[in-house]
Model the fold of this input.
Amino acid sequence: MTSEGRSTPAAPAGRPWFMANELLAFVVELVALAALARWGFATGDSVAAQLVLGLGTPAVAIVLWGMFAAPRARFRPTLAWVLLVKAVVLGGGVYAVHAVGHPVAAAFFGVVVVVNTVLAETLRRRTPQRGAPAA
Done:
């Protein structure tokens, strides 16, 4: 609190490498969604199918992510379920990159996804959450 009784904004919790990995996680999620959209638009046999797959596949991924894997997810399943949703969405993004003809980029993206997810889940459990008492 300041002397006028107003609270000051809190600084981002954690160390710089934690915040950098969180930023990378967000970028990975966006790339996966873009890859799913690209795959959908490239896969459909007709314009209607391309629109349904190109818009619908990332929309389903967004709903799944928002319900189960996002930091402020509507439902808080166990870690195993969160990782399953992440595997489906992010793994689908890796598959989509491969399916549109970029196997080397898919392999690279797959490695980034796995390393980032392992680091993110490990670091999130070691970094105190905002508002949580320090142990």
